[in-house]
Amino acid sequence: MNTPSSQAFAKAFTGKYKIPPENQAWGDYIGVKIMAAAMEEAKSSDPAKIIPLSESGMEFDILKPRKGHFRKSDHSLLQHRTHTSLKNFYLI
């Protein structure tokens, strides 16, 4: 992704490990960043304070052009997407 935060992450990761980050590195980094942001916002590490905050629609920088948030019903991390379809498209 070509966002300032993703470029900074890739540069720091590559500088330290001498290889570009792969998907697992992204997931681990985002997970820690989300927890840190939620604890900072809640001013606590108590799950009873963090869970309602994440269910509130709080958005997080996930190193992509759009922010992510958690779905209240199952706590899945959602990423906004744009869906398109092709009309009258045929494979030959």
Structural summary, described in words:
By secondary structure, the chain is mainly alpha-helical. The chain has one domain (4-73). Helices cover 47% and strands 9% of the residues. It has helices spanning 4-17, 23-42, 47-55, and strands spanning 59-60, 68-70, 77-79. The protein starts with a helix and ends in a 13-residue tail after the last strand.
In short:
With 92 residues, the chain is mainly alpha-helical.
Provide tags for this entry.
single chain; 92 residues; mainly alpha; 3 helices; 3 strands; 47% helix; flat
* Quaternary state of the chains: single chain
Note the run of SSEs as H and E.
HHHEEE
Please indicate the count of domains: 1
Indicate the proportion of strand residues.
Answer: 5-15%
How far apart are the first and last residues' alpha carbons, in Å?
Answer: 32 Å
Query: How many DSSP-defined strands?
Result: 3
Structural class: mainly alpha
Radius of gyration over all CA atoms, rounded: 17 Å
CA-based shape: flat
Quick one: biggest sheet? Answer: 3 strands, antiparallel
Tally of helical segments: 3
Strand order of the largest sheet: 1-2-3
Which residues sit in consecutive blocks of at least 5 with pLDDT less than 50? Answer: none
Mean pLDDT: 89
Share in helix: 40-55%
